[in-house]
Write a structure and sequence with these properties.
heterodimer; A: 344 residues; alpha+beta; Rossmann fold; 2 domains; 6-stranded mixed sheet; 5-stranded antiparallel sheet; 18 strands; 28% helix; elongated; B: 536 residues; mainly alpha; MetI-like fold; two-stranded parallel sheet; 24 helices; 1% strand; globular
Chain lengths: 344, 536
């Protein structure tokens, strides 16, 4: 490894990668401090997996540098980066049992048998799989396989842990528990971690740092709170907060707001009032009941341009206005303090 | 030079030397013949164009017979449930494990003029029947090749989208019409692929014509007859046979490309339980079919124990002993052909597995430049009949060549493992390639992210995952080599004949059946055991 850099942890410095005519990564730069958990989040095809594979060493960037603990590892092969990866489908070795899988990293690193066995036991206890050492991967549930993959990665004692959509194959009912467990494990082990997901709720729940990507570029990065309170673009507001984004004309027509800026409002900040006036600009399209909040989607047509806009509101189910059903005329409102504003 | 480059260069050298060079030598020999590459076409009699017509007709009829029997059986077993169905399912693919020589030999003792079946018919009706000649060849072909359409159609039926048939029924079609309209089109690729396999096997068939129609116009026999006396004519005949099979291959591939079955999900239909008279009739037919499937094996085993001095005019031999087995396996001299077959097959299998794996790694895993050429060279022996392959090898290695430091391999035992290696290379390559394609793409990256170098990842993750398929391919390669006759009869060195040639010589030279039947029975047993291990 060459090229010492004063910044520790993981740093990507203007990394670009093309596949044919498609730019998968464009000048991607971000920094993950030591022991932090960073999550790259974005829609399908935004380049987040390419970024992860570039950090792992499975993709070579066309330009830019990857630095790990201050050392330039851009051209270092994957096995010498100390960046262990947990794959989306776990990639457990079918010819090895659970213990063999977990012991794989220490074994190829030349760790003696006795300390290796201790390490395997410790890791299996850590992920709650003690006693399953002799099971084969196909004898495990999806959640257990995921924990073996995690134990295997941690047993390699990496400087950097890479998680590729780690919850996408976990049963939806177990996802919340699993992500809490992963976050707890991260805090216990303190390994610098880069996690990739397309799920915004997952990203905001576990991350110290959220890195939002779109079309091969980093759009914004920061703590979940920073990103949510001050989204840098309307895309971040829409993607991360599910916000209603409206141009000034629509804001005036549907929210009665006089503004020359593009505005965005989170659905839980949009209030609705059932009105009797049939000439109301918005009408309810769907009402999706939820035990805590009910989602109401309204639609309106802008008279000047003929454009159709939708406004989504998450209303307290207990305070749901009476008579709110499909076709009902409504008025929507947002407190000015809750509005996010963007230059046109 | 990286390790991959070294592997690529070494593999290319092996393929060029063992597959491409014999083909080049063949064409060069044919061009130098009197009358040029198509000297064969100016020949008259069974050594000339008549042989091409004979082979083409034989192959087409074999395809039709195998399709009718194998495809029909697959359909019946898939659609209907009746007594004996499970046994038929297990036994139907059995003839595939029968080495060509053993199959032909077994049918010879059943069908020839003085064979078991004509004796039985004579005893029952008083009529003399001749079940040899072309009838014998077609019976052997139908029996040994029907498993191809059976297995292909069976697999296609198993993965068929049953909801299309249900859709046709819900739109008003009856059971037969909906099957014809919605199910049969889905079987097209399986029917086509198995037809191709039967055609190529029948066109290259040597043993059945060798036993049943030795004087008749058949290409493989024409090559065999010409090779000793007129090498140029042998080369020309081989070129014409290779071109004919390649032309058929091209036509099949073209038709195959034009076929579309569409991809969708669905549940295949469940066999319908027959009732009443249909159930009894189907059960009886199944019993007959099972008997027919077991007949050649039973005849071989029975005659391996018979006492030739006591068998005169009876349908079956009246007395039995172990004498033939004692003679076949009792002395080191009588075991010599067995050892020759075993060691040459082991060497060939080891080489075929190593080279097949190397080609698969370069083509599928590494996706090197020129991978299509690698794959074509590894698969080319599949389209070359055994007789043609042997002639090619004689032209390439039979005389002193620079890459052999001026030495010639003819008259040495080395041509046998070389021929077996080339004949079984497509099997090991296909096996390794299929296993590599099935290998989850993340396994090697996972190993590398844990600190394994590419070589360690290959040894600790890839090889163990490939092992079951490679072992099966190796077993198949070994069994094919041990029973190989078609190329062996042209290539063996005097005193170094393999078991298949030894069986043939014993039968021809001594006109006895018991000892060759004993060898053939053991060979069948080994092949059946290996085939069952491969299936598991």
């Amino acid at each position: 490894m060459t090229g010492a850099d004063p910044i520790e942890g993981l740093r990507l410095d203007r990394v670009s990668r093309r596949f044919g005519t498609t730019a998968a990564l464009r000048d991607v730069s971000f920094h993950v401090p030591p022991c932090a958990l960073a999550v790259i989040v974005g829609p399908s095809g935004c380049g987040k997996s390419t970024a992860l594979r570039t950090v792992a060493g499975f993709e070579s960037p066309d330009a830019g540098r990857v630095l790990l603990d201050g050392l330039d590892v851009t051209r270092v092969p994957p096995e010498r980066r100390s960046a262990a990866m947990v794959f989306q489908h776990y990639a457990l070795f079918p010819n090895l049992d659970v213990a063999g899988n977990v012991a794989y990293g220490p074994r190829v690193q030349g760790v003696e048998a006795a300390p290796r066995a201790t390490l395997v036991r410790e890791m299996l206890e850590l992920v709650g799989l003690a006693g399953l050492d002799l099971r084969r991967p196909h004898e495990l549930s999806g959640g257990q396989q995921q924990r073996v993959a995690l134990a295997r990665a941690l047993a390699a004692r990496p400087k950097l842990l890479l998680l590729d959509e780690p919850l996408s194959n976990v049963d939806p009912s177990l996802r919340r528990d699993t992500r809490t467990r992963l976050r707890t494990l991260h805090e216990a082990r303190g390994v610098t971690t880069l996690w990739v997901t397309h799920d915004r709720e997952e990203a905001l729940a576990v991350a110290d740092i959220v890195i939002v990507m779109r079309a091969g570029e980093v759009v914004q990065s920061g703590s979940p709170r920073e990103v949510c309170e001050s989204p840098a673009t309307t895309f971040v507001a829409e993607f991360l907060l599910d916000a209603n984004v409206l141009p000034p004309s629509a804001a005036k027509a549907f929210l009665s707001l006089a503004t020359d800026e593009v505005v965005a409002a989170r659905p839980d900040h949009v209030g609705l009032e059932r009105i009797a006036d049939d000439s109301a600009p918005l009408r309810v399209v769907t009402v999706a009941y939820g035990p805590v909040r009910t989602e109401v989607v309204c639609e309106g047509v802008l008279a000047a341009s003929g454009e159709t806009f939708r406004v989504r509101s998450h209303v307290d189910t207990d305070a749901l206005p009476p008579g709110l059903r499909a076709g009902a005329p409504v008025r929507a409102f947002v407190r000015p303090a809750d509005l996010l504003r963007f230059r046109r | 030079m990286t390790a991959w480059r070294v592997l690529g260069v070494a593999t290319a050298a092996v393929l060029l030397l063992t597959v491409a060079e014999p083909l080049r030598a063949l064409v060069a020999e044919a061009m130098a013949a009197d009358g040029g590459a198509f000297a064969f076409l100016t020949e008259t009699g069974p050594r000339g164009p008549q042989a091409l017509v004979g082979t083409l007709v034989l192959s087409v009829v074999s395809v039709l017979l195998a399709l009718a029997i194998g495809g029909g059986l697959a359909l019946v077993l898939h659609l209907a449930d009746f007594p004996g169905r499970r046994a038929l399912e297990v036994l139907a693919p059995l003839p595939i494990a029968l080495p060509p020589l053993v199959g032909s030999f077994a049918f010879l003792i059943l069908l020839e003029k003085d064979g078991i079946l004509p004796r039985a018919i004579r005893a029952a009706t008083g009529a003399d029947v001749d079940l040899g000649g072309w009838t014998g060849v077609l019976v052997v072909h139908a029996f040994t090749m029907a498993p191809f359409p059976y297995l292909f159609v069976r697999a296609a039926l198993g993965s068929m989208d049953g909801s299309r048939v249900e859709a046709a029924r819900s739109l008003g079609s009856g059971p037969v019409r909906s099957f014809v309209d919605a199910a049969l089109p889905q079987l097209g690729p399986a029917i086509l692929a198995s037809s191709l396999l039967v055609f190529l096997t029948a066109a290259g068939s040597f043993t059945a014509p060798w036993y049943f129609t030795p004087g008749q116009p058949v290409m493989t026999l024409a090559i065999f007859r010409a090779h000793g006396r007129d090498p140029g004519l042998a080369a020309s005949t081989t070129v014409v046979l290779a071109l004919a099979t390649l032309a058929v291959l091209a036509i099949f591939l073209r038709v195959q490309r034009a076929q579309t079955t569409g991809a969708s999900k669905g549940v295949p239909p469940v066999p319908r339980r027959l009732r009443g008279g249909a159930r009894v009739a189907a059960g009886a037919a199944a019993a007959v079919a099972i008997a027919v499937l077991l007949l050649p094996h039973a005849a071989l085993v029975l005659l391996s124990f018979h006492d030739p001095r006591a068998w005169r005019t009876e349908i079956l031999p009246p007395s039995y002993s172990f004498a033939a087995y004692a003679e076949a396996f009792g002395s080191s001299e009588s075991l010599r052909p067995v050892w020759t077959s075993v060691w040459t097959s082991l060497v060939a299998t080891g080489a075929a597995v190593a080279v097949g794996l190397a080609v698969a790694a370069l083509v599928v895993w590494r996706r090197v430049r020129g991978r299509i050429a690698f794959a074509v060279l590894a698969m080319a022996p599949f389209a070359v009949p055994g007789t043609a392959l042997a002639v090619n090898l004689l032209f390439a290695f039979g005389r002193g060549r620079w890459f052999l430091a001026g030495a010639a391999l003819s008259g040495t035992v080395l041509l046998l493992p070389l021929a077996y290696f080339i004949r079984t290379l497509p099997v090991t390559y296909q096996g390794a390639a299929a296993a590599l394609q099935r290998l989850p793409g993340d396994l090697v990256p996972a190993a590398r992210s844990l600190g394994a170098t590419p070589a360690i990842a290959f040894r600790t993750v890839v090889l163990p995952a490939l092992w079951p398929t490679l072992a099966a391919a190796a077993l198949l390669s070994f069994v094919t080599s041990v029973g190989e006759f078609v190329a062996s009869i042209l290539l063996y060195a005097p005193g170094g004949e393999p078991i298949s040639v030894h069986i043939d010589q014993l039968y021809r030279n001594t006109n006895t059946i018991a000892v060759p039947a004993a060898y053939a029975s053991v060979l069948t047993l080994v092949a059946a055991a290996a085939s069952s291990a491969v299936r598991r």
